[in-house]
Amino acid sequence: MKVKLPKPKIFACEESEELAKKIAKAYGQDLGKSKKIIFSDGEFQVSFEESLRGRRVFIICSTVPPTDNLMELLLMIDAAKRASARHITAVIPYFGWARQDRKDKPRVPIAAKLVANILQAAGATRIMTMDLHADQIQGFFEKPVDHLYASTIFLPYIENLNLDDITIASPDMGGSKRAYAYSKFLKSEVVICYKQRKKANVISHMELIGDVKGRNVIIIDDMVDTAGTLTKAANLMMEKGALSVRAVATHAILSGNAIERINNSELKELIVTDTILKKHASSKIKIVSCATLFADVMKKVQNNTSISNQFLM
User: Fold this and answer.
1) What's the pTM value of the predicted model, to 2 decimals?
2) Which domain holds residue 255?
3) Residue 135: what are its φ and ψ, rounded to 5°?
4) Backbone angles phi, psi at 257, to 5 degrees
5) 184 noted as active-site residue
6) CATH code, domain with 42
């Protein structure tokens, strides 16, 4: 006799509430009730306003800086554990601190590993995230990790553009694997940008490996922060004879003068997801929602069924 599982509960941190509402709607149920009380000194307390006993709990929170977002997620995980939740899945559409995934010079932390340790210590029994900055971050966890790829929603968008002579581009050497995966699906050519940095977020030199003349180029990246690399690459490709340059980036951090750079660049379009809540003051930015993808995978996790058919690459 098959035992019917109790319905899961879906909750959200403040930063990701808008996305969480979309995910809950796609899942087919309402967002759970929770409360956040902020004290006069900035400290805050979270609480669940309904019973979690024996339930699977999904807590949706992108851990974009400031650290309050990560702290809120940790407090919600701890509260769920102490409320006797059966399973606690931290749904982290954007996994912050992921760029610090190794020691690239002496006496620096591996922040991504530290965050993984803290999430597990708080009580998370499963992690669900999308387009990690480096795939190996999954190995920082001793709990199951569902690593989703935005290619599932980006590739249909690219196909609907009906572009001829497509070339996929990686903005740096580290993203070449991702670019080749897209090119394999689209049966297109690949070019790679080689860049050198003076310091973080500052590029001193960039060269293009490959030919883009007469091609419609699509740059593939996991995130766009200051947009320095992206816009420099787009401008370089147009100088090299590209017909058009578009970019696809999962996480729209868009800090500093990013919007201004995008507006003043040769980029025709920047396609991003809604993993990070931002108001995009640019007509060039198009948003495709990842809510249905997360909802589908959450259902499969709840029902203990395979999620492998969710991956196009």
Assistant:
1) 0.94
2) 151-288
3) -55, -30
4) -95, 25
5) no
6) 3.40.50.2020
